[in-house]
Amino acid sequence: MKQRGRHRRQKRGKALRAFLAGTALALTAAATMISASQATGSKDADGVKELAGSAAGYRLQERLVPQATLDRLSSAMGKPVGVSAVLDDADRSLRAPADCTTADRSVLPVVPTATRAYCWDAADTRGWQAGAVTTSGDADDDGHWGAHRVILSGWTHDTGRASRTGLAKVAFVNADDPTHLTYTWALLTVPVDGGRDYRGLASPVSGMVWYQGRLLVTTADGLYVYDLDRIQRAGVDSARVGKVRGGWSAYGARYVLPAVGSYQLTGKTPRPAAISLDRSTAPDSLVASERVAADSDRHTRLWRYPFSSDPARAGLLATDASGRAVATQAYETRTTDVSGVLSYGPYWYLDRASDTRDGRGTLWRQNARGAQATECGSDESNRCWSGQAGSLSYWEESGEVWSQSGRMLYALPLSSIDRSLDGED
C-alpha cells in the first residue's frame, strides 16, 4: 500500500496549500471573537513518568470472528464493498466555516487556531454526539486510501439515559476536495447467530484508529476491529438494526460495518478511552490513554502496543503465542480528564476537557522532563483548547492534527502546536 495515490500529491498539494492559507486567516479572525478569559490553569506540571516493568501487565486478548461467520453474513447481504464504493455514494456535505453558526464555531481552539474547519448539519446529527476521528493518513503513510483522501468520524446516539449507551456509527468523508467535503454513514455492528444476523454496537466512540485495512474502535471492554474491505450495504431504510422484512436495516445508515474481531481486557489492564497511531516508532504502534476524573486520587496511565509486521495480519496488533497483545511501554501523568492522546517523537500530546459545560479545555505537551500547555488571553490562561475536547489524529503526510468538538471538525498543523508551546506564536 506504500504506492496508493502517491502520484497525486503534487497536483493536490498546490490546491490544498492555497485553501489552507485563506482558511487560516478566516478562522484566526473568528477565533479572536471568542473570549479567552477562562480560569487560568497551571502553566507547568510534571511530565510523563515511565512505569518501569509494568507495561507487560497491560494485555489484550485477541478474539477474531470465525471466517465462516463473516462469509455467511456476506452471502446473505451481498458481496462486501470497499471504501471507494462508500465514498462514491456520499450524499451529504459538510459546511464551510462561514456557513456554520457562531455557537458551533465557538468550540474551535483559541490558540493555536485551526487552519481548516467544517461543521456537520444540525438536522443530520441531531441526537448524536461526536466522538473520535481517524484518517487515511493513519491508514497509509502516503495519506491516501486508493485514489482518495478520507476522514472517518465516529458518533454515538444519545439515548438521554446515562445508564444506556446508544448505537455507534461512522461518517465516511471524502476529503479529496478541501473546499467541499462529502460523506455518508455506516453503522458499527457485531455479527450474531453465526453470521445470520447482526446487532448494533452500543458504545461511545471515544477512540478510533484506521491502520492499513482495519479500523480499531474503543468499547467498554477493550477494542473492536472492523475490516474496511468488508463493508456491507443496507438496503432497507428503517429505525431497526439487522435482518428485517425485505432485507437488512442499519438504523437509517446506508452501510454496515460488521466486526471481524475484538481485543478484550485481561487482568488489571486499563480500559482504553482515547487511542491514536504513532508512526514515529518501529514498528508503528497504537497508543492509548484511560479517562481519569479530576477528583480521582490516582494518575492517568498511558501505554502502547506494536502493530503486527506480518502481512497476513495487516492492521492487527502484534500478539504472542496465546493471542495476547502485550504493551511495550507504560507511563503515568498527573493530567486528568484526558479526551485525546497523541504520541510522536519524544512528546505526548494530551487534550483535557473543560471543567465546566461552557468552558475551554487545555492542550498539553509532555515528556519525561516536564509539561507545557498553550497560553492565551491577557491573563495567560491555559484554557485555550476546545472545551468539548475530542480525540486527536496526526496525518503525518500533511503534518496536520485532526479533531472534532460539538458539530465542528477541524485541523491544524502539529508545527503550529509546537510553536505555540515554544512561545513562538
Would you summarize the structure shown here?
The protein has 425 residues and is mainly beta. It has helices spanning 9-32, 67-77, 83-88, 102-105, 122-125, 136-139, 414-421, and strands spanning 44-45, 49-50, 59-64, 92-93, 116-119, 128-135, 150-157, 168-174, 182-192, 197-200, 208-211, 214-219, 222-227, 232-233, 241-244, 247-250, 255-266, 274-278, 285-289, 300-306, 324-326, 329-333, 338-344, 347-352, 362-367, 370-373, 393-395, 400-405, 408-413.
Description of the structure:
The protein is mainly beta and 425 residues long. Helix content is 14%, strand content 36%. The strands form 5 sheets. Strands 3, 4, 6, 7, 8, 9, 10, 11, 12, 13, 14, 17 and 21 form a 13-stranded mixed β-sheet that branches. The chain is globular, with a radius of gyration of 21 Å. The two termini are 37 Å apart.
